Amino acid sequence: MSPVAFVNGRVLTDAGIEEGLTVLTGSAHIASVNRSEAAGAHAAEEVDLDGKLLLPGFVDAQVNGGGGVLFNETPTVEAIAEIGRVHHRFGTTAFLPTLVSDDLTVVAEAISAAREAIAAGVPGVLGIHIEGPFLNEIRKGVHDASKIRYLDEDAYRLLTRPTGGKTLLTLAPEKTTPQMIRRLCEAGVVVSAGHSNATYAEVRAALDNGLSGFTHLFNAMSPMTVREPGVVGAALDDADSWCSIIVDGHHVDPVMLRLALRCKRRERFILVTDAMPSVGAERKSFSLLGRRITVTDGVCVDEDGTLAGSNIDMASAVRNAARLLDIGIADAARMASRYPADFLGLSSEYGRIAAGWRADLVIADDELNILETWIGGRRLGSSVPVSAVH
Ligand SMILES: [Zn+2]
Q: What is the distance between the alpha carbons of residues 302 and 293, in angstroms, rounded to a whole number?
């Protein structure tokens, strides 16, 4: 990749949104970020951002589909690539294709597809998020109860198959043992609690054995009550774990999310889309494991009105978080980049605009309309004027 200099933008760095910086890429990584105008002198191309935002590319840990494609339906390399293409338009430069509860044969196919996609260099794919089937039926949400099962040794062997990337597993801690959670974590799996009816004590035991996340906080988990803090109480009480949140204005009342943000460090909240095939697609209905899902007033619901993933893209999630959670664009964008990279153990390469980090970049206007997406130093879309220096 030829070096590219990004100039004249407002750049999100560790210090905040800064002006007057030159961001220079070299190959797939960022070579330098500094105030010297000479920094870009040897760039093959100069991108004049004209006051636009330059943000770290978004990292989405929960993407079920997009562009009419559902990963469960087609757990293939082509599907991962197509889902990625759709979400790139919305600033997502790294993602985990996400499988909801299904037969273990489908889980196996999905893991193979993720491994092959990484090996083939499909842009942005980080691994896989396996959301179920090791869940609690009581909190199944839209998951198919007939798929839910116990996490036995065969399942353990399957879940720990290498993909060449990251495996995120959402499970109900009360449906397995702390020892199993420990073994999964020791094998490199990132374990997150979700679709769970666990007590505080059960979650605490899981946290003590390596559980490090909570999947779509508040949704499909035992709520906080006076004498039983439940999964929500455990998530908010634990300082170190990460909570993913769906900020579409429908999944959770913004008041609850604002309260959650006061309970622990902001660095421990990450935005996920939980996107369904309707994102980036004309058709606003699709089939999810035999159930008809339609998008009504911006929300994906089944025939019973149960929420079935979301219809938002990551740019919308960042925009919503900035506004509904009253945190501003800088922190909202970090919740979609640096913090999820931390959660997934990718903090040394993803999620920041800094020398040595991947050149995964998003150019956006103040309304978070995505104008260009760059992955590994390569431009994927174009509308901002660029001028060749050499
Ligand atoms: Zn879910």
A: 5
**Is residue 48 annotated as a catalytic residue, yes or no?**
no
Catalytic residue among 238, 274, 313, 360: 274
H/E stretch holding 70: strand 69-70
CA distance 51 to 264: 33
Residue 294 alpha carbon to ligand 1 centre in Å:
17
What is the reported pTM? 0.96
Q: Helices marked H in 89-229 — which ranges? A: 104-120, 153-159, 178-186, 200-208
- For residue 159, name the pLDDT band (cuts at 50, 70, 90): very high
C-beta neighbour count of 234 within 10 angstroms: 27
How many angstroms does the Cα of residue 143 sit away from the middle of ligand 1? 8
Q: Encode pLDDT of 257-284 as tens digits.
A: 999 999 999 999 999 999 999 999 988 8
Cα of 383 from ligand 1 centre, angstroms: 35
As to burial, measured by CB atoms within 10 angstroms (0-12 exposed, 13-18 middle, 19+ buried), residue 257 is: buried
Q: SS3 letters for 98-133? A: EEECCCHHHHHHHHHHHHHHHHHCCCCECEEEEECC
CA 8 to chain centre: 29
Contact call for residues 39 and 5 (beta carbons, < 8 A): yes
CA of 2 to the centre of ligand 1 (A): 41
